[in-house]
């Protein structure tokens, strides 16, 4: 394999939940040079050949865009929604945690010695990139926030994109999603927001504290990554000037920011300010 044909280092997208990471992830996944973990590989995480299905959606970009972003092109958070049989022909970019579990990569790294199985992650992600026909693998996972240092050790040249959003907006948004009440809160002994409320405590306070804890975990991890491999963007800037910010991210990741096909796709997506 020539140097030009080898996959570029992956881009790991980090950020507190409800910060706009899904919007950024799916917008980048529309790029012809981007690779990503799809919902089928999520079911069989060791089978990188399933990444080849990523090429199917590019043949009908309008239909793929509707599946990914909804009919109005303004809903990037479409996880766990029921899909029609026709929609199942369009693989979707997902968080893909089973791929990391397959290599025994923990959600939170305590500095324990790195195992041989964990070292296989780099090869698995590289094969996923190649099979999908992409150049750069984009991986978004809230769980990355507490394992940034380990990901850097496993793939030293990997880049990290930190997506931030006003903490008040994050707390308010988090308090309104239906999956949050049953979500184990890692910094509160994996107890749930439902238990927090049952104790008579302010639910919004928990949401705000969660933003603080996630942000601190990200800062701790990124402190161990060379500054040239870290890019920080604000949700507020993204929704104000989406093409400018996404082009900057693409350039940082190693994707062609001037790719006409990608820019045409982005023009069909709405970036409403949900603050």
Write up this protein.
The protein is built from 13 helices and five strands. It has a five-stranded parallel beta sheet, with helices on both faces. It has helices at residues 21-29, 39-43, 54-57, 61-69, 97-102, 116-131, 148-154, 167-174, 193-198, 203-222, 235-240, 242-253, 260-266, and strands at residues 11-14, 34-35, 136-140, 159-164, 230-234. It is α/β, with parallel strands linked by helices and 275 residues long. α8 (167-174) packs across α10.
Number of helices: 13
What's the total number of strands?
5
The CA-CA distance between the termini, in Å, is 46 Å
Largest sheet: 5 strands, parallel
Low-confidence stretches: none
β-strand percent reads 5-15%
- As a whole number of angstroms, the C-alpha radius of gyration is 18 Å
* Coarse structural class: alpha/beta
Question: What general form does the structure show?
Answer: globular
Give the averaged pLDDT, no decimals: 93
Give the neighbour order of strands across the main sheet.
2-3-1-4-5
Order of helices and strands: EHEHHHHHEHEHHHEHHH
Kindly state the percentage of residues in helix: 40-55%
Task: Give descriptors for this structure.
275 residues, 5 strands, alpha/beta
Layout of secondary structure:
Layout: E1 11-14, H1 21-29, E2 34-35, H2 39-43, H3 54-57, H4 61-69, H5 97-102, H6 116-131, E3 136-140, H7 148-154, E4 159-164, H8 167-174, H9 193-198, H10 203-222, E5 230-234, H11 235-240, H12 242-253, H13 260-266
Parallel strand pairs: 1-3, 1-4, 2-3, 4-5
